[in-house]
Design brief:
The protein has five helices and two strands; from the N terminus they run αααβαβα. It has one domain. The radius of gyration is 19 Å and the shape is extended. By secondary structure, it is mostly helical.
């Protein structure tokens, strides 16, 4: 599980480097203060692990079964990443480049 831990550490380092306690932006949106308050309340409830996890988007190739079919995933690893590490999302993008990049061809690709 070392690769996942390295990704979490990298995400934490990125999160800490991106922190900016003050904002110089202004908005004409009257709801911005309300949204900001709700975001602050949600962030206050989250642990650092949850915050870092939500910032991580792993490629589906990370979960592929070696020498398996393209749609075969290591379900235990996927579950561990989501449940235990709380990753924010998984990007399901085909690794191979289709000869026909039309929307119809992409819709026809099978995924489990």
């Amino acid at each position: 599980m070392k690769p996942l831990k390295l990704i979490l550490i990298a995400g934490l380092m990125f999160a800490l480097s991106a922190c900016n306690p003050t904002s110089n932006t202004t908005s004409n949106n009257p709801n911005e203060a309300l949204y900001g308050k709700k975001v602050d309340e949600l962030m206050a409830k989250m642990t650092m692990k949850e915050k870092v996890g939500q910032m991580i988007q792993l490629d589906s190739a990370f979960f592929k079964v070696k020498d398996g079919k393209p749609e075969d995933f290591d379900k235990a690893l996927l579950q561990k990443a989501i449940v235990d590490y709380g990753i924010g999302s998984v990007l399901f993008a085909p690794q191979d480049k289709p000869s026909d990049p039309s929307p119809e061809n992409w819709r026809g690709r099978k995924r489990k």
